[in-house]
Design a protein that fits this description.
- The chain is mostly beta strands and about 260 residues long.
- Among the domains are: about 100 residues, Immunoglobulin-like (Sandwich); about 80 residues, Immunoglobulin-like, CATH 2.60.40.
- Helices cover about 5% and strands about 40% of the residues.
- It has two helices and 15 strands.
- Strands 2-9-8-4-6 form a five-stranded mixed beta sheet, with no helix packed on it. Strands 1-3-7-5 form a four-stranded antiparallel beta sheet, with no helix packed on it. The chain has a four-stranded antiparallel beta sheet with strand order 12-11-14-15, with no helix packed on it.
- A hairpin with a 7-residue loop joins strand 8 and strand 9.
């Protein structure tokens, strides 16, 4: 039998030397970092970067910072989004209009309605709804208001709703009351060749008139917007092409009833 010296492999020291050359990765497992294979696994190159499994990355991704609304929270929906009323000063009130309140979210919507105008009223002023429509009757009282445009706001609030409060702008336009009285004046034409036209004078006292109405070469004219219960006085003048004006014609009068 052959004899000689036997060399025992130093596996432990070789393996330790290999481990000592592996870079230390301080990034915790599962975070965005690098993972390495042991020497000689799958490739002669060293070290080899492993591909992180997508399902692990998804599980370990940081949670979203957005906080969703509570499940089943109610949401205010109002229709229409604005209201417009028109009327005549001193006339009848505009017809009421309906404002609908619905819940487009979950749970139960407990709502309240308010306004900021003395000429505006709401009925009812509160209610609850899950999926059904609630109706608010919007009524106006224009007594004492002059001809003008008025603005107000209806506010809908609901505790726990995702979009409380909601507002509804309201616009009211009042126009002046037309005066119903009229007076029709007719006169004989002036025959002078340099005639330019006629002027009508109107007053509430005989012989005292306001600014004239230029009517051109007409020989009949209707004066409008005369108030009921008043007596009006009328006179006529002629004007030539040089803007010379004649004296007043004989006076006419009419009482409006």
């Amino acid at each position: 039998m052959a004899t000689g010296s036997v060399t025992t492999p130093t596996f432990a020291s070789s393996f330790q030397a290999a481990l000592a050359s592996v870079p230390v990765n301080p990034t915790p497992f599962g975070s965005v970092g690098q993972l390495f294979a042991a020497p000689g696994v799958g490739s002669s190159s060293y070290p080899r970067k492993l591909t992180q499994r997508p399902e692990v990355a998804a599980i370990l991704a940081p949670p979203s910072q957005a906080t969703p609304p509570p499940s089943g929270a109610p949401t205010i929906n109002r229709n229409p989004g604005s209201l417009t009323f028109t009327g005549v000063q001193g006339g009848a009130n505009p017809l009421p209009q309906i404002l609908s309140i619905t819940n487009t979210g979950g749970g139960t919507l407990s709502w309240s309605a308010s306004d900021n105008a003395s000429w505006l009223s709401l009925s009812p002023g509160s209610g609850t709804t899950t999926t059904e429509n609630d109706s608010i009757t919007v009524t106006l009282n224009t007594t004492g208001l002059t001809a003008n445009t008025y603005n107000a706001t209806i506010t809908i609030t609901a505790s726990g709703a995702t979009n409380s409060p909601r507002t509804v702008p309201v616009t009211l336009t009042l126009t002046s009351q037309p005066l119903p009285g009229t007076a029709t004046l007719t006169w004989n034409p002036n025959t002078e060749p340099d005639l330019a036209g006629y002027r009508i004078y109107v007053g509430l006292t005989s012989g005292v008139y306001g600014l004239p109405i230029d009517v051109g070469n007409l020989t009949t004219y209707q004066v409008t917007n005369l108030a009921l219960g008043q007596t009006y006085f009328f006179a006529l003048t002629a004007v030539d092409t040089s803007n010379n004006e004649s004296g007043f014609s004989n006076e006419a009068s009419k009482s409006i009833f």
